[in-house]
Amino acid sequence: GAIWMIVFNPTRPLVAGAVFGGALLLMLAYIHPNVGTLYRQRFGVWLFFLLCGAVGWARVFLALLEQRVSDHGLTAQAADAGRSGSVGTVSTVDRVAASGAVVMLVTLLCYLGFFARDLLLVQRMGMTDSLDAFFTAAMIPMFFVTFLAMPMADALMLPFLSSGVGNPEQRALLIRHTLGFALLLLGLTALIVVATAPWLITLVLGGQGAAQFDQAVVMLRWFAPIVLLSAWTVVGNAALNALGRSRDAALGQLVVPAVTITALIWVPPPQAATAALGGMLAGTMLNVYWVRRALQPLGIPLRPAMPRVHVLHAVTSSYHRLAGAALLTAALVPLNYAFAAGVASGSVSAWALASKIVALFSGLASVGASAVVLPHLARIFSHRGKSGLRDDAYFLLMGGSWLGGGVAVGGVLFAEPLVGAALSGSASAEQVTALANIIKVGVLQVPVAIAGTLIAKMAIVSGASSRVVISALAGCVVNLGANLVLVPHWGVMGVACGALLAVVVSTVSMAAMA
Fold first, then answer.
1. Per-residue pLDDT tens over the stretch 264-314
2. pTM for this one?
3. In the chain, is it the N or the C terminus that has fewer CB atoms within a 10 Å radius of its CB?
4. Angle made by CA atoms 117, 239, 151, in degrees to the nearest 5
5. Which distant-in-sequence residues (6+ apart) come within 8 Å of 185 by Cβ?
């Protein structure tokens, strides 16, 4: 990358910096017999060349994207309209790539923040029954958010973009009614979670220790308000993404892990679980405030209105199918937790930690697809129909599969040293090896999951959301069958293999129907 930068884009400051940095590195290499000292002293200068390499590769990829844009005949006027982020315009692919890179970078920081939270909890609590209780209590509300709240954002995207063309009042009205519908649905769900907490915990953890059961029930009831608060964050973030403000939406989500980690650092180890719980609640409330402030200058007050059927018809017509597909996919999370809980004490923590590392990569693809790719495809579909969608579909699938393949190879090669470094002193050698093996199996699903996510977004935009339901059902059945066969013999590794098979079957079936 640095060679490309210097050869094809030579400038006087660039050449001067390269000569200066190269001369200094050469002197350091000759005068330092100590490799450790050499490495530390050269690193500041070496960053110059790393930056040149990063810019060089970025120029290569942007040149390919610009060539693709010109091949499709997009005018400069359309490109400028896309850069403005206004509703109803089609952004060029290089603009989509730039927005997606920023959103995924911020989202990566968010996921790493949650992973750091989990590592702090492991260090302070150990992989014990108490940590199993915390992970179970945190997982159940997110299960309801995943299949009730998240599909609302996908269902809202195309009606929001269609209603916003020349009619900003109608757009704001649609957001307010959707928010009212979300609050009614998710508020009722939060009350049900509070009332049925003992039954839900029993469903996941089974008949394990009384102390663990009581801890999980109390924490689940405190986590339940997150289900209600997600109404504001999901609907508000959907509006921000549709308006081209996906970076604001991603930055708001970064508040949650930041507050949680801060709370964990400042409390003694016995109160670690309580601090993490309080940090999650406080961070989510700050995220709601952030989203409301971000939408105010855009003329969208994030205040609920009593939902009306005729206003929400365009949203609810596809929402029920998307919610059904999300339910089948989200149900795999407590299902896998339940199978892991039946293996041994601490198995839930091991599975939660390993699956979160895998979700780090597949979740990035999902967020990028929802925040950037879905609005882009919706604009294309509203302007040019399915014929315009097809070209970008091939390009996105090819790029996503190659990127996911690179992540999978890196995960298989470096899983064990990375897990050992992350859990140094907090887990035994056997636990490190077991976690690394689970991660190696899990990362194999990343390229397949990326392709599946992109195909699902294309199906949603083109009105074929029923096919997403069929593929999710196939994956759910395969995951359940694989767990029943493999877990008795392989333990938590069987759970990982079942999850991999589910993703493969779901994506292949959706690709066949596409």
1. 888 887 888 888 889 999 999 999 999 999 988 888 888 888 888 887 888
2. 0.68
3. C
4. 65
5. 148, 231
